[in-house]
Design a protein that fits this description.
Order of helices and strands: HHEEEHHHHHHHHHEEEHHEHEEHE
Number of helices: 15
Helix content: 25-40%
Strand content: 5-15%
Length: about 500
């Protein structure tokens, strides 16, 4: 099986692409959400190796919860390979009351400034048009039209379709459990729904289009930098590019399409060709390969990381990130014994919760199973063997209840506090009660890297990354003709 995004081969049983992080899981195999303390939307698309802020003064509280293990794997693995999109990910998901891109045919290198309520101007950028979906019978002639230019490079409507729908699918992959809270209905036209993330009248269609245009600009600027500096693709990236046509054909067959063309049109709309997708892959692989070589060269030293933490200690400590021995990540196994029946209690806000009696019964069952395990071999292997038949956590039941690379504050409080107890050591076990039920715990390991160091390194690295990307855009300004843009239509409720 190959990844539908980058065509890299997938290991048997692993739907998360190790190359780009795209989630290829068939819809029926998507496990239910697990362990969120509340419906908290993560306002970033970054991996745990990257801080979702531009400065230490804006460090977020480390309280985001995983959607589920599969989605967490996407965030950990996939977004790492989308770091060229960091600037737009941070900017687009956190901005409030600002205008979009510059007017058509004007140089566009960064988001425009926020306008005060008193100012009134003609809509510009993506806001200059209310809708972009093509209404004619045959969109094919429109796909060759140029909509953006940068140096000698051009962005056609054909390539824009791939970037636009990639933006949409990536968003759904990351936030699928929160779409209703964001007001995004996949069964309705995107141009008829207001995007709740912007604080403006921007529609979801305009939002994803703006994201797609910035994505192209960042990739193209990096691509141009790579070519100007005589960069040669790594062997891995070159092999992936050279075999992409064969892999596309294999993917089409594996996903049940009669041809590559049929698969591409199902994902990106009528008229999108294999030639255009190959151009997208070359742009994507070259820009990302080059980007990572630059980030490796800019990786901060230990002395720089420690100095950075000291310079911004107040900001870090306000977020509970102390310079202590708390590990950056831990790995833990658990078996969730969930109360039986519907939730019979209510919390202070009137929300349905499990009653004390239900939770007590779940704890008794957990204690019985725990005692059974203790009376046996009481090893990690024997613990993992109990998971499949006993745990209610669909997100970890397939891998022996294992959660890896868990960061402080990621899980619900009681679960988190047990895992990050300073006295915790490998092989520790116990019971933990949460609002989900009772968890039988097995502590596997902790990272040698401390959390404060990890947070400082990530924040400093993100500052350098953001600045580097902006410098690239400054060296390669681009222009967009919004009147020339048309968008294909796909079945948004089933396409991702």
């Amino acid at each position: 099986m190959n990844c539908k995004h980058c065509q890299a081969p997938l290991e048997d049983g692993n739907w998360i692409c190790p190359s780009c992080g795209w989630d290829n899981t068939p819809e029926e195999e998507d496990p239910a959400p697990v362990l969120p303390e509340e419906n908290t939307v993560q306002e970033d698309s970054l991996s745990p190796d990257e801080s979702p802020t531009d400065s230490p003064e804006e460090l977020p509280a480390p309280e985001s919860k995983p959607v589920n293990q599969k989605k967490l794997a996407l965030v950990i693995g996939g977004i790492v390979l989308l770091l060229a999109l960091v600037a737009v990910a941070v900017w687009a998901l956190t901005r409030q009351d600002r205008q979009a891109e510059s007017p058509a045919s004007e140089s566009t290198t960064a988001p425009s400034e926020t306008l005060s309520p008193e100012e009134t101007v003609e809509p510009t950028g993506v806001l200059s048009r209310e809708a972009y979906a093509y209404e004619g019978e045959d969109i094919t002639p429109e796909l060759s039209k140029v909509v953006s230019t940068m140096d000698d490079a051009t962005l056609t409507n054909g390539l824009l379709q791939i970037l636009y729908w990639r933006s949409y699918y990536d968003f759904l992959n990351t936030y699928s459990s929160y779409l209703s809270y964001m007001g995004l209905n996949t069964t309705q036209p995107l141009s008829e729904q207001t995007c709740s993330l912007t604080g403006t009248s921007m529609t979801w269609e305009q939002y994803f289009l703006e994201n797609a245009l910035m994505t192209w600009a960042q990739h193209q600027a990096l691509y141009n930098e790579a070519k100007a500096n005589g960069y040669t693709l790594s062997e891995e990236a070159q092999t992936q590019l050279d075999t992409s046509a064969e892999q596309l054909a294999t993917s089409a067959q594996q996903y049940g399409f009669d041809s590559v063309q049929a698969m591409l049109e199902a994902d990106f709309g009528a008229g999108v060709t294999e030639e255009t997708y190959q151009a997208y892959l070359e742009l994507y692989l070259t820009s990302m390969d080059y980007y990572f070589t630059q980030m490796d060269a800019m990786a901060p030293s230990e002395e720089e990381v420690e100095a950075y933490y000291q310079e911004n200690e107040e900001s870090f400590t306000q977020q509970g990130i102390e310079q202590d021995d708390t590990p950056a990540t831990i790995s833990v196994r658990h078996i969730l014994i969930q109360p039986e029946g519907d939730m019979e209690g209510t919390d202070d806000s009137g929300n349905a919760v499990y009653s004390e009696e239900q939770l007590a019964e779940a704890k008794d069952k957990a204690q019985e199973l725990y005692d059974q395990w203790l009376a046996g071999e009481a090893t990690e292997t024997s613990f993992a063997d109990l998971v499949a038949d006993n745990s209610a956590d669909a997100g970890s039941v397939s891998n022996g209840g294992l959660y890896e690379d868990v960061t402080p504050g990621q899980m619900v409080d009681a679960f988190n506090d047990w895992c990050f107890d300073p006295a915790r050591k490998p092989g520790d076990t116990g019971l933990v009660e949460t609002s989900f039920g009772c968890h039988i715990m097995y502590f596997v390991s902790a990272s040698e890297e401390t959390y404060w160091y990890y947070a400082a390194r990530s924040s400093l690295g993100q500052e350098r990354s953001t600045q580097y990307l902006q410098d690239c855009l400054d060296r390669h300004p681009y222009e967009t003709d919004f009147d020339a843009i048309v968008l294909t239509q796909v079945e948004t409720s089933t396409a991702y």
